[in-house]
């Protein structure tokens, strides 16, 4: 029984809040007051961070490589848009959850397709589902508005109290609160025994099955949860920008998302959030240098990251913050280098 | 009846084109187990090389086609030697990220150099129009594609089955370690095969400019088609991808002609169903490694 208690003390120790984590969230909140003129881009970052968090759940923790995560983002975006447009659910928070649930249902249904097969089949199936949904959205343009997208969405005040203003202040705080809430949930999930079993599956599915982990059921559960997160991210997109168009399903969105997560690192939840900040800043930078051809630089970043090696880059990036944190909080508090991927 | 046959012929031509475009990928992805999403970029390179030679330098079309092959093959081997070979043993995630990065770079670079609009290659007059064969209208250009691609397929099959290089490649794919032990220079075989596949893609790109359309977004638009050919066709031989390409070509042309509203819906559904039914492809075998 000592092994069991060892595992639980270890799990509890790693689940404890670290100073660096608290600092991260304080910093995030501080940004809201430091840059009041930049709410729109910060909302964009928060949304992207949430979306990347969703991919991290399946890629970083369960090891499922997905090229079509935009499918759930798009479903969430269109659900939220349609709910608001037809006045079915006027209250944004309830609509947000409803849109997330729609995406979760889709995630649950498609998870059975995804858990079959190896990496390559998964890539193809996830990509295929996203393309399929894009084709569907284009086909039923009387519902989705086709290439023009949903138009004339008007958002009601949040909880009946806070109206969306044109500077995006409400939208930003709304998104940040949603992100934080969902982050807490994700943090709880990945540090739970369930989350530990996911890591076991990622490292070696056969061995995980041999020690009694129901591999398929766990994968279905986390895939559904990730779909829920992605749906919420999509719904936030619609609610804060008041539009939803076909490009929510685009392949580029899924590919960008991978880049975001890879910049930040997989498997420690903050990767997506940090990656979102860095990605948006890079995008702004490249767009200011070469407005039309920033895609080239994004591609170059991807190639360089892979060639240098993801783990090595993260060690370099985390070197300075860790040095500072160690000064204040001793050796143990350092931010861990994310686990390397086994595939 | 005649229109059905014409459509069928168009589908076959389209499928054969897809085969030439994708069979290089069948080797890298199917045999070498490298997820190369950037395969379309080599096809695009071939297409643009051909377009520049024909439209700007005034080369005859048939002289530019081999140059498209050579140009793409050279680009392919340069990238293989400098970048790709470091990634053979890396995780699929790394390979996906790397090749997406390459696609993005190629899209933006071509957009910068050549402009974003669709490029047309001036065809010789002999290839334009249709000929009437027993009441069935057959496009001359498509007929040429069927002939060229059919010959290429035969040549490939012969090279793989009969030549010394073919047996080395099959050995290297079946069991790289044993092949190295037998004195086969596996990296060299792979590099050569990679370059050859890129060259074929380039040739396919040059041929497809007329049918599929050539613009900077070519690699992204047709990525899924190439992947379908390889994953559905499996990798045990080149006949698998060949039949998968024909199937895909005919289904796509027929789908666009008879149920235009469903669009690409049919193809993706069929792909997902086939992958669920046979995860290793229709003609597949279990992966060697």
Structural class of chain A: mainly alpha
How many E-type strands of chain A?
0
> Share of helix among residues of chain A?
over 70%
Beta-strand content of chain A: under 5%
The secondary-structure element order of chain B is HHHHEEHHHHHHH
The succession of helices and strands of chain A, N to C, reads HHHHHHHHHHHHHHH
GO molecular function (chain B): transmembrane transporter activity
Keywords (chain B): Amino-acid transport, Cell membrane, Membrane, Transmembrane, Transmembrane helix, Transport
GO biological process, one term (chain B): amino acid transport
Main location (chain B): membrane
Would you mind describing this structure in some detail?
The complex is a heterodimer of chains A (343) and B (289). Chain A is mainly α and 343 residues long. Chain A has a domain at 38-250. Chain A contains 15 helices and no strands. Chain A has helices at 2-15, 19-34, 39-61, 70-85, 92-114, 119-139, 141-144, 169-191, 193-203, 205-210, 215-241, 251-264, 270-289, 294-308, 310-329. Chain A is globular. The two termini of chain A are 32 Å apart. Chain B has a domain at 23-218. The relative contact order of chain B is 0.20. Chain B has helices at residues 2-31, 39-56, 61-82, 92-114, 140-162, 164-174, 176-181, 186-208, 218-233, 239-258, 265-277; strands at residues 130-133, 136-139. In chain B, 71% of the residues lie in helices and 3% in strands. A two-stranded antiparallel ribbon of chain B has the order 1-2. Chain B has eleven helices and two strands; from the N terminus they run ααααββααααααα. With 289 residues, chain B is mainly alpha-helical. The chains are: A mainly alpha (343), B mainly alpha (289). At the A-B interface, α6, α12 and α14 of A face α4, α9 and α11 of B.
């Amino acid at each position: 029984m000592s092994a069991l208690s060892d595992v639980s003390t270890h799990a509890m120790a790693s689940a404890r809040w670290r100073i660096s984590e608290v600092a991260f969230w304080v910093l995030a909140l501080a940004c809201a007051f430091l840059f009041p003129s930049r709410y729109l881009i910060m909302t964009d970052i928060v949304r992207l961070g949430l979306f990347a968090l969703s991919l991290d759940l399946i890629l970083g923790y369960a090891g499922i490589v997905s090229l079509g995560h935009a499918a759930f983002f798009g479903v969430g975006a269109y659900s939220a848009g349609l709910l608001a447009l037809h006045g079915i659910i006027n209250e944004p928070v309830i609509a947000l959850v409803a849109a997330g649930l729609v995406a979760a249902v889709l995630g649950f249904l498609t998870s059975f397709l995804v858990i079959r097969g190896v990496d390559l089949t998964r890539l193809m199936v996830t990509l295929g589902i996203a393309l399929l949904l894009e084709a569907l959205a284009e086909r039923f343009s009387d519902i989705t508005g086709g290439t023009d997208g949903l138009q004339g969405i008007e958002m009601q005040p949040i909880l009946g109290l806070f109206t969306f203003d044109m500077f995006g202040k409400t939208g930003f705080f709304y998104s940040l609160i949603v992100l934080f809430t969902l982050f807490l949930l994700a943090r709880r999930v990945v540090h739970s025994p369930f989350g530990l079993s996911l890591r076991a599956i990622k490292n070696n599915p056969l061995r995980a099955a041999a020690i009694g982990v129901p591999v398929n059921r766990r994968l279905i559960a986390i895939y559904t949860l990730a779909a829920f997160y992605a749906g919420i991210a999509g719904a936030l997109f619609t609610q804060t920008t008041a539009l939803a168009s076909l490009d929510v399903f685009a392949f580029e969105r899924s590919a960008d998302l991978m880049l975001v997560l890879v910049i930040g690192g997989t498997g420690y939840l903050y990767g997506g959030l940090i990656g979102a900040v860095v990605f948006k800043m890079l995008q702004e930078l490249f767009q200011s240098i070469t407005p039309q051809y920033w895609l080239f630089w994004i591609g170059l970043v991807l190639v360089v990251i892979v060639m240098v090696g993801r783990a090595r880059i993260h060690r370099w990036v985390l070197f300075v913050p860790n040095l500072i944190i160690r000064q204040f909080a001793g050796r143990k508090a350092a931010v861990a280098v994310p686990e390397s991927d086994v595939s | 009846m005649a229109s059905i046959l014409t459509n069928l012929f168009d589908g076959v031509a389209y499928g054969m084109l897809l085969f030439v475009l994708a069979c290089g990928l069948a080797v890298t992805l199917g045999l070498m187990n490298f997820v190369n999403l950037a395969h379309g970029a080599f096809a695009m390179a071939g297409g643009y090389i051909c377009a520049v030679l024909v439209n700007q330098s005034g080369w005859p079309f048939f002289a530019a086609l081999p140059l498209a092959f050579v140009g793409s093959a050279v680009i392919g081997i340069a990238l293989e030697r400098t970048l790709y070979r470091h990634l053979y043993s890396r995780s699929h995630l790394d390979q996906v990220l790397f090749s997406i990065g390459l696609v993005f770079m190629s899209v933006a670079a071509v957009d910068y150099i050549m402009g974003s609009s669709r490029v047309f290659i001036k065809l010789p007059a002999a290839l334009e129009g249709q000929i009437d064969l027993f009441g069935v209208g057959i496009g001359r250009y498509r007929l040429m594609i069927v002939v060229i691609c059919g010959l290429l397929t035969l040549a490939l099959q012969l090279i793989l089955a009969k030549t010394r290089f073919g047996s080395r490649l099959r050995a290297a794919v079946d069991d790289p370690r044993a092949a190295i032990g037998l004195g086969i220079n596996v990296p060299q075989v792979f590099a050569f095969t990679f370059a050859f596949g890129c060259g074929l893609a380039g040739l396919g790109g040059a041929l497809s400019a007329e049918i599929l359309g050539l613009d900077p977004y070519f690699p992204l638009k047709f990525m899924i088609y190439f992947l379908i050919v390889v994953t559905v066709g499996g990798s045990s031989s080149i006949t698998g991808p060949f039949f998968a390409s024909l199937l895909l070509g005919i289904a796509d042309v027929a789908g666009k002609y008879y149920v235009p509203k469903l669009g690409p819906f049919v193809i993706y559904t069929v792909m997902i169903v086939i992958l669920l039914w046979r995860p290793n492809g229709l003609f597949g075998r279990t992966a060697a490694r």
